[in-house]
Amino acid sequence: MTARYRGHIELIPGEEGQPLCVVCGMCEKACPSNCISIGGEKPEGSKKKVLTSYRLDFTTCSLCGSCVDSCNFGAIRFSKEYNLASTRKEDFHFDLLKRLEESKQ
Ligand code: SF4
Ligand code: SF4
């Protein structure tokens, strides 16, 4: 696996495994293929939004990198995932927040 290999994007975990994403929406806007759809909410008493969902439609992703380049918080990167195969489109609709949570277990 080369250092510059581009698999689908993934969320980068912080020190405690939490997403570094601040729900600014820049990656969503930067994507020319509308692959990214994020959701967030402000918990009561907090000034910052918390990420509640980060969905990627990998069926139309061109791996252009605009989303990664647009993130000023170092919150997303290309994964090293290379072994994807399925005959069902739905299998390429990823819930990246769920994936991050599962990777902690
Ligand atoms: S640009 Fe970065 S911080 Fe902003 S919503 Fe996307 S991943 Fe999160
Ligand atoms: S790599 Fe390009 S096409 Fe794929 S999700 Fe990011 S901005 Fe969209």
UniProtKB/TrEMBL annotation:
The cross-references to SUPFAM superfamilies, in alphabetical order and at most eight, read: 4Fe-4S ferredoxins
The entry's keywords: 4Fe-4S, Cell membrane, Iron, Iron-sulfur, Membrane, Metal-binding, NAD, Quinone, Repeat, Translocase, Ubiquinone
InterPro entries linked to this entry: 4Fe4S_Fe-S-bd, 4Fe4S_Fe_S_CS, NADH_quinone_OxRdtase_chainI
Q: Which GO terms describe its cellular component?
A: membrane
Q: What Pfam families does UniProt report for this protein, alphabetically?
A: Fer4_7
Q: What terms describe the molecular function in GO for this protein?
A: 4 iron, 4 sulfur cluster binding; metal ion binding; oxidoreductase activity, acting on NAD(P)H; quinone binding
The cross-references to Gene3D superfamilies, in alphabetical order and at most eight, read: 3.30.70.3270
**Occurrences of domain 4Fe-4S ferredoxin-type (ranges):** 11-41, 52-81
Q: Which PANTHER family match?
A: NADH DEHYDROGENASE UBIQUINONE IRON-SULFUR PROTEIN 8, MITOCHONDRIAL, NADH-QUINONE OXIDOREDUCTASE SUBUNIT I 2
Q: What is this protein called?
A: NADH-quinone oxidoreductase subunit I
Taxonomic lineage per UniProt? Bacteria, Pseudomonadati, Thermodesulfobacteriota, Desulfobulbia, Desulfobulbales
